[in-house]
Structure formats: structure tokens, C-alpha cells
Amino acid sequence: MISLIHAGHRGHILICSRGGHLHGTYPVGHEHDIWQARRPPFLDAKELTPEAVVEGIKAEYAHLRQQHGVEPGGALEAVFPERVMKAWEPYEIELVSRMSARDVRMLLDRYKSVIVTNRTSTVREIGGVVRSRTRGYNGAPKTVDVMSAGIQDMRPVEDGTKIRVVFADQPDLVVDRVVNCLGNNTDYERTGHPLWHGLVNAHGYAQPQTKTHRGVEVGTHGQLIAADGTVAAGLFGVGPMRQGDETTRRGRLGAFVFSIGTLRNQCFDTAMEVLRRLASAGDEEQMDVPDGIHHCLIRSSDWIAADLAAEEPQATRLRKRLQDYAREGAYPNAVNYLQAQDRTERRKYRAILDDDLADFGAALAREFGLTAQQARRTVSLLATLVQKHAVHNLCDITRLAGWDSQYAEQVVHAPTKGAS
User: CA-CA distances (angstroms) from residue 160 to 11, 163, 174?
Assistant: First the structure.
């Protein structure tokens, strides 16, 4: 629509959707904030029915509006839904995990428009133009209308020069042009694309995402999960086919299941995992690293210490030594290496990381009486898990408030009503 207006289009434009919802517009001087919010009380219920979830969300949202003093028409109102939905992402993961797949799909289908339009707003160069045309401005006529209706059919009429649009509960309309904004396909069980038809239907190398039926089922790093539940060897996916996984794994909804930031993070994480597998293809020890423990450096350190089969109290001292070094040495070095902007800088930080790990391995051998082979294995496994942990944190905005984040000061509690 903006392109049409900028190109000089003067005709009437009708925006049609089943819900009739529009994205909000960011206020002047808007800056993105990351809020924290309490766990919604309705999650304490033993059973989460769709009706209870909808009513619980409405009640909690009303509570937060009152608590934070959101006034109709105020600057905060325009961005409040987006910030609350971002703050709710950890609870979205819990919510989806506790509900049946049927109920999750029903809620996502029924409230798709509400979710999409509230999860993100538009800049004033877009939203301001749309809204000014819906009500007229400076004496100019109104040229944009918004209709809430479901489209049943479209067919050419008048020798193919116009299009008749048939609605479910509105009179037919004859228009000159139709712009299709239905978005991308989400059902990979019924996809017509030959690649995905072959992967899903013909060979079973992939399967539709179980809980949401949006995209396909993938592992932690985007590995395709085959129809029999095993990991499809050598097959990874990044992009819109992972939108259901983004919802169940990270609580993301709306455009954030396939936004540029999400796609960038997926590509980074998957590329690092592919490189790790290539580098350790002949190293059985590296290939045996359990998936998932890298989310927590304490769990990683515990696993490595248990692998050495050390007895108490030495095992406790070893775990503490690994944890401290992971936090204070290996992790910062790994982040510097991964964030390096050019090859020279990357080589420098790689050398620092490798030298520091070698020194740590030698220290472990002296302090705990490890053999050279045991020390090398310990350091190698620790380096792998720390790097996976660093990639995970760099890709996951919900981790920004952790001890290992340079962005912790950006994660704030929403200002409450009356607070200075």
C-alpha cells in the first residue's frame, strides 16, 4: 500500500482481513525496551483449557495495564502490547508445553491476527501514512478503509479487466486489483513445493512440527527430525520452516518466528554446529557430547567432571574449578572470538583462546593428577560446550539478563504506576 501511495496512486484502497486488526505505530523517539513481567497467575491451574487460557491472558493483561498506568491514546499504549508479549515469552514456552497440540493449533489459528498485529508495530513512515489515509487529513478525502471479513472466492469479470471478490458475510465487491498478503505457507504436510513434499511425504526425512503444525520438527540446532523421530543425518533447516519450533522452544509469536533477527541467529547457530561436526567428524569423543547441556555451564561442568569418574571430595573441587574457569576465562574468550569482525581479529582471539585452554589443561593435570590424555579430553570437551553456550546466548534474547551478558542493564522491570 505504501508503494502504491508513493507511486501516486489516487484510487480507493480496501484493507481486508478476518479480524480487521491493524499494527500499531511506534511513537516519536521510540526505543525498544526489554521488560520482565510476573508469571501470569492462570498458569498455576492444574489444567489449562483454551477458555481458561484466553480469560487468564485477558485478566493478566488488564492487570498489567492498570499496574503500569497505561492511558488510552498515551505513548505507552502504542508499545505496551509488544513489550508485554516479549516479556511473556518464557511463559509461552510453558503454556504451549502443557497444552494439547489440538488446543495450541486452535488458539494460534483463531487469534493469529490479534497476535501478529500486537506483537510488533510499524514505524511512523508506514503506520502514520496508513492511519492518515483511513480518516483523511488536511482536508484530503479518506482513501483507505479497513474491512473485517473472510474472503470466499475471487474470479475475473468484465472480460478479465476486473475482479469480483466474494465474502462470507458481506456483499460482493468488484475491484481493479488485488494484492495478496496472506503470507507464507505454514503447513508442511500439504506443501506443494517439490523439495518439502519429497522430504516430508515421499521420504520421511522431515515431519510437520508436532505441537503447532507450523513448519517442521527440528532439533536444538535446526537438525531435521525424521518421521520416525530420529535425527536426519546431515540435514538442517533455517528460516520459516522453523516457526513452530521458535514458538515451542523460545516462546516467540507473530513476525518474530521468522524475523531477520531470528533468521540471523538460526543461521549463526546452525553454521557453528555444522562446523563443529565437520571439525570433529573423526573424533568420537567430541561427537558424544550430549545435546542440550550447553544451555547451562554448571550442567556442562558437572557432566565433564562425571566423565572423569573422580571421587569425592576431588570431584567437587574439579566441578568448581571447571565452572570458575568456564565463567571467568573460557566463556569471555569464546565470545570475543565469535564476535570478531575480521579475519585478523578472529585469529588473534582464536590464539588467545587456544593458549589459555592449553594452560588450563596443564594446570588441571598438576592439580588433580590427570594424565595428559585426560587433560586434553577435559579441555576439548569444555571448549566445545563453552562455545556452544556462547553461541546459544548470543542468539537468544531471553538470556540477556544473565551473569554472562553485556546487555544486562537493558533488561528492566516495566515502570509501575506512580513510580518515578
Answer: 19, 7, 11
Sign for the pseudo-dihedral over CA of 405, 406, 409, 411: negative
Would you state the cell numbers that stand for residue 109, as one nine-digit string? 489459528
Asked if residue 296 and residue 258 are part of one domain, the reply reads: no
Is 188 domain-assigned?
Answer: no
333 and 271 part of one domain: no
Please, which residues bridge with residue 163 across strands?
156, 175
Q: How many CA atoms lie within 13 A of 231 on its CB side?
A: 12
Instruction: Please report how many Cα atoms fall inside a 13 Å half-sphere around the Cα of residue 39, on the Cβ side.
Output: 9
Give this prediction's pTM: 0.79
Q: Is 156 helix (H, G, I), strand (E, B) or coil?
A: strand
Q: Where in 237-283 does DSSP place strands (E)?
A: none
**Nine cell digits for residue 309:** 569418574
Same domain, 58 and 146: yes
Those residues whose C-beta lies under 8 Å from the C-beta of residue 108, and which sit 6 or more positions away, are 115, 212, 214, 247
Q: Is residue 319 within a helix (H) or strand (E), and if so which, with residue range?
A: helix 314-325
Residue 86 CA to residue 119 CA, distance in Å, equals 8
Helix (H) or strand (E) holding 353: helix 343-368
Domain containing residue 347: 281-399
150 and 213 housed in the same domain: no
Other beta carbons within 10 angstroms of residue 350's beta carbon come to 14
Indicate if the pLDDT at residue 404 is higher than 50: no
| Mean pLDDT (the chain, rounded) | 87
Query: What is the SS3 assignment for 196?
Result: helix
Nine-digit cell string for 405: 551478558
Provide the pLDDT for residue 217: 97
Strand-pair category, 13-17 with 144-148: parallel
What is the Cα Rg of the chain in Å?
A: 26
- Between strands 34-36 and 411-413, the pairing is parallel
* Residue 286 pLDDT greater than 60, yes or no: no
- Find where cell 533477527 sits: 261
Rounded to whole angstroms, the Cα distance separating 173 from 170 reads 9
